[in-house]
Amino acid sequence: MNQSLNALMTKLAWQRNELHTHLHAVDNESIKVKQQLEEIEQQVNQSSTRSSTEINPELEISRLNFITLLQQQKEELMGALKNHQALESKLKDKLQRVMTEIRMLEKYLDREQHSQRKQQEKVQEQHLEEWVIQRRNTYEDQ
User: Where are the annotated coiled coils located (predicted)?
Assistant: First the structure.
């Protein structure tokens, strides 16, 4: 039984490490997406603030198409960011469950070890008492 518990602890430790790694990767991806969103927002702001006294229809159409393209990219990135956040939330929940299982198993193993130590101490006390009684009987017989 102890081997199976140790194997389970090892498996849970591996899962915990994999979840930490995956969570870190998702967090890095979220940071990259946020940076891309900021860059797009800056580009939109820069292209919107240009004002000139003469309006060239071709340039204005190109500018509006560019802004539309940036808005589409922004929406796609927002969707990706939401997906990353949902995945991050799931990973955190899984990680929390694994950590709870590990703590529960550690407590169980501690209780088992404590009870085994108590049992060994009782057995040693009994052996010692038997030895003392045998010695006492030996001296009384002499």
Answer: 23-101
- How would you label 13-40 residue by residue, b for 16+ Cβ within 10 Å and e otherwise? eebbeebeeebeebeebbeebeebbeeb
pTM to 2 decimal places: 0.71
Domain residue limits at 109: 2-141
CA distance 23 to 18: 8
Q: Token digits for 14?
A: 């591996």
- Residue among 89, 95, 102, 107 at smallest CA distance from 17: 95
CATH of the domain at 65: 1.10.287
DSSP string over 74-139: HHHHHHHHHHHHHHHHHHHHHHHHHHHHHHHHHHHHHHHHHHHHHHHHHHHHHHHHHHHHHHHHHH
Q: List all residues 6 or more positions away from 29 whose beta carbon is below 8 Å from its beta carbon.
A: 84
pLDDT tens for 112-130 read 999 999 999 999 999 999 9
Per the structure, how many domains does the chain have? 1
